[in-house]
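User: Some background: our group keeps a shared notebook of sequences we're curious about, and every so often someone picks one and asks for a predicted structure to add to the entry. Today it's my turn. The entry only has the sequence so far, pasted here. Could you supply the structure so I can complete it?
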Amino acid sequence: MGYVEELRKIVGHRPLIFVGAVTIIVDECGRILLQQRKFPSGTWGITGGLMELGESTEEVAKREVFEETGLKIDDLQLINVYSGAENYIKAENGDEFYVVTIAYFSKNVKGNLLVDTSESLTFEFFYPDQLPNNIVKSHKKILDEFLKNLYTRERK
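Assistant: Of course. Here's the predicted structure to add to the notebook entry:
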């Protein structure tokens, strides 16, 4: 049982603050890896998750990518930090939380892509101009900023 689950046993559904990390993975063709999630059903998002006790945000990013995809990443580049009222989430089970999300990107990826079916339906690489429409709202904001500010510089 992880830190979040242990906290929830104590506080129930009350609002909490969590720190998480997501990573935009870009392949050698300039495509972005997205995860089609089980929850919310069928939506697309960036690989990531919540911090466990004692982890750095970089460690969170690397652990979550490995757990969800089987890929190992390195050379993380900071995109931005996202927080505030717009990062409030009420889960289907009634849990409430605010997330401080640290977003990274990496082009340094090793391994073979494996799908963790407990969280994901599939993973696909998309060209930036062909991203799916049903992207998790908070992840869409991160992707938009990445594509506007960083992706263009990275491609030069």
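Suggested note for the entry: The helical segments are 3-11, 57-69, 137-155. The chain has one domain: 3-155.
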